[in-house]
Amino acid sequence: MQMQNPQKQQPNISEKAWISETAVIVGNVTIADDVFVAPNAVIRADEPGSSIVIGSCCNVQDNVVIHALSDSEVVIRSNTSLAHGCIVHGPCRIGKGCFVGFGAVVFDCIIGNDTLLLHNSTVCRVEIPNGKVVSDGQTLTEQGKIKGLNDITQDLAEFKNSVVKVNMDLVNDYRKLAE
Fold first, then answer.
1. pTM of the model
2. Active site annotation includes 47
3. pLDDT higher for 178 or 58?
């Protein structure tokens, strides 16, 4: 379902994206080419002055929630995966080629390129540089603790790239089914 917000702003979705019929997209939301939005995802920019931009080749998996507070934006750059049940709450900027794991919570952050926030992690009010890994279940709410993060490994880089590829294949396969 796609609907306008109370400010009468409509989602702007590329014809090259694939959006599940059960996803809910509200208001000032821009979705680029080759984005996959899975069943029951909720993407809401309905508060005054809020906006959400999802870059090309991203995937928003089942039950993901993306919401922007009043006068804030959420920007998710290209080739980023938002895994099942994660919450991304604006204000927030997520860089290119990132992975946000199952059940992770991201609020009021800047996440650098090629960064992984693994399953059930919580990241709030911090800036994470490029190429870092937040471990499963880790909570980061203080900027000083960012220095202890590990760098991304080759195995994790391959994993996050494989998730993007699988979901790109889904976009193409679902579009073919619709033809």
1. 0.95
2. yes
3. 58
